[in-house]
Prior knowledge:
alpha/beta; DNA polymerase, domain 1; Rossmann fold; ten-stranded mixed beta sheet; 16 strands; globular
Amino acid sequence: MQRPxxxxxxxxxxxxxxxxxxFQILNDVxxxxxxxxxxxxxxxxxxxxxxxxxxxxxxxxxxxxGAPLTALDLLxxxxxxxxxxxxxxxxxxxxxxxxPVGKTTEVCGAPGVGKTxxxxxxxxxxxxxxxxxxxxxxxxxxxxxxxxxxxxVVDIATAAxxxxxxxxDDADQRDAMTTFNVDNILSNxxxxxxxxxxxxxxxxxxxxxxxxxxxxxxxLVIDSVAFPFRQLFDELSQRTRLLNGLAQQLxxxxxxxxxxxxxxxxxxxxxxxxxSQLVPALGESWGHAPTLRLLLRWAGSQRQATIFKSxxxxxxxxxYQITSDGFRDIDQSExxxxxxxxxxxxxxxxxxxxxxxxxx
Length: 360
């Protein structure tokens, strides 16, 4: 029951009370008793019962998530999905081809380690034409920190176009290069700026309609998911409930619309065993939300990426660097930064930057 609470046949005043209390989707309400719903949302007992009855009715009417799938159906569906490469062949190899489409990936790390650079690289890479092994898709980039820099996207896009043009050796690839250019890449990144968690939640809950109208979108980036939620909440339970609702909505979009959802998260200090250590922000409960978690960190003067949560991969670490061309490998044999990947990864894509107002 991923439908928004606002779709219920209730009075406007009741809907406002539910939304203000942090109840965003039907699942949020279904897990609460009438007494608790009355207390948390400021509803009368009668109103709370009406809300729960409406939720049960709507939940039964749409038949849940549809007909059950067999394990073979799921396997075939997984094989149809592609990955978005990072232009770091070592990281792509560690991930089994790149960041997976249809799943949520969280990229954690301290400031300056390259989280935003990876997101910008993916927004470009997702647009690499299919004849080069890419997805030929579009990207939605939700910026909560003001870290989206168009000129940086231009640099990364220019490098991707140059690289593909060097590889073009048949008629299809040469023809694809007539439209795979910086201007088209920029025009296929839909940029949204959110200033607080209210705007972020509003945009995310409007996204399914936008994705239905733009079926070429294969990547959704939220950079970062932590920043809007690190302000003080009167009740920690409210923040947890809002984050749970957000996670469910993102998972639903990833699976239903075949979109790779990439979230960046900040780091915070936590005391364990009398010692402080850096851990991803937003708490342990949020850590269960993404399918895959990557940790970007410094190891001396070198950047490293580590898989520390994945149902498919062993924990592993690779080195990478940020160059003027974007996210790249480090040449381990020469210990010198490589200027560009020697071969195009199995799958790639590109970028764009067009201001999108989802509320319009």
